[in-house]
Amino acid sequence: MNETSYISRTSGLKTRDYAGYALIDAAGCLVFSLVTTLLQIFYTDIFHLGPWFIMLMFIGARVWDGINDPIMGRICDTVKPSRYGRYRPWIRYAAFPLALSAVLMFLKIGSIGEEGHYVATCVYATATYVFFGMAYTVLQIPYGSLASVVTTDVGERNKLSVWRSCGAAIGSIPVMLIASFAYAERTGVDGNPVIGENKEVIKDLQYKPVIIGVVIMAIVSFVLLLIAFHMNKERVKTKPQLPEKGAAKKAIKLLFQNRAFVAVSLISMLLLSGQMFTQSFYTYLFKDYFSAPWMVLGSQACTYSPMLVMMFLLPGWARKFGKKEVCAWGVAAAAAANLLLFFLRGLDPGILKWMFLFLCFVSGIGLTTLVMQLWAMVTDTIDDLEIQTGSRDDGTAYSVFNFFRKLGQVLSAICVNGALLGMNYKVEKGAVQTRDNLKTMYDLATLIPAILFGLMALMLFVYYPLSRKKVEELQLAKENHLKESYEKKDIDI
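The chain above was modelled as a monomer; its predicted structure follows.
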């Protein structure tokens, strides 16, 4: 046996490896972005479902996830690996169910969505949404765990996190085209455009362009996942955990006793909640307040475009200053940008729309610091847990982490539908929003993200323990632990 470090034996990623890893999230986000951006307004404006029902349905689906996610996590940890590895095969298994469930969520079958069939529409919406959530779990939990067996080098894991974030951004772009251009001006019985109380022409979401776009995105997602399956490789081959009685409960207990894991899970929950809130609620804001649906595409371009530069800068900043430190200041800047938008609410809408997009860009720069480093931070916390306890249950860890992110979806659903209820949003076909409703809409669209991002910054500064110095110490401890595990034949490198 030579003197090469054990970490170096399970590293050495090439561009193909990074691209293949990123492609999984690009494919997943092609369909997940339909939920974060389009599903909420589709439910209210096409299915004509009330905010109360939508909020309760989302909460109920997350209760089921509390059972479903840990089961998936334990399956990953205990099942015998195939010749393709432990986590990689699930990419292929999830491809078709994920694509199918995405289409079904937006498919109007028979009288679904029509007046007088509210109960049937509620049942259909619930069944298809839960189906999608389960299919997405089958992909996401193994995918999260995959990074730990692709490489053990902290620098390469940082780059994987950056590439994954870029993949997610690329996968999220196409839905913006649907959300921006799937509208038509409402016309009255005289054939003239209908003007709302804000003196702008009312625009309505159209079903046909939505379903065509959804089908195309589902097919592309399916193909990309199959390609990604062949591009990824597991370098660390671990033995499956023994399916002992009470093992899952013990593993989950250890996770909740680890401060770093709890902190990053809560931060991720707030991040996803803030992202989903803005993506969903902005579709209402831009359609009804600004009467400019094209701003959906503009705001997301401002949010994601900083990645083009930050993907080259962040790995160096993270090494020099630390992931925690860079992310904390970045998220604080995002909170400040959204708070400033709230105080600009008195400006003329014609001027305000451009200020809104500019501050979305500032917020996007700040959030990008966390979005691009989040998955590397999760892996750090799992390494920290392994060093402290000797236990490494990646599938279970990512199932719990994924459940926190789904709690973020619940929080987003509460915020979005609570805001719609608070402003008395009218979901009836042909409804017109009042001027007072629209003012309240703007206030909530800016204050809620400012609060969520502010809480994230506070947690990063105060509660998350893995500073740059701590991560450096962790890397040294991991090298020694990996050496001991190899000598005990717990891993094969």
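The domain at 7-492 is CATH 1.20.1250.20 (Growth Hormone; Chain: A;).
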